[in-house]
Amino acid sequence: MAVVCERPVALHRDEAGRLDHGDGPALAYPDGFALYAWRGMPVPAGFRAELPALTPERIRSEENAELRRVMLEYYGYDRYLADSGARPVHRDETGTLWRIDLAADEPVVMVEVLNSTPEPDGTRRTYWLRVPPTTRTARAGVAWTFGLTAEVYTPLRET
User: Fold this and answer.
1) Cα 63 to Cα 26: distance, rounded to the nearest angstrom
2) In angstroms, rounded to a whole number, what is the distance separating the alpha carbons of residues 94 and 143?
3) Residues 6 or more apart from 122 whose CB is under 8 A from it?
């Protein structure tokens, strides 16, 4: 089988080779056919224009989980947690467990962690790990990301 078509007039990819373009179609052909994508994920044509006006309510109202993930990534987890009234429910040496209770949906539970090695400028980068809503401690959340229980998660060295 062979597929023959004209060359695209636009083709934009990220560093991983995925279709990605924030200012228009990631892939477009002369006949007007176009695909819009954000880091490899297909998005509606007007999606990018909507991002600067995002609110926590708009993010929560998005039914498509993948689009919601992109919105959260764009909005910023730290900002989303602050603007949503999230509360810290546990803190230990592994990080801080945050929880946002949502009406008619499962709670959003995330662990805030710092990278174990400093950046070239000496700062440490913050990461947000989404964990199951049943998670009760930061250690349990971090352990879950490795497929372990909190009791077994005891790294000898972190890099």
Assistant:
1) 23
2) 10
3) none
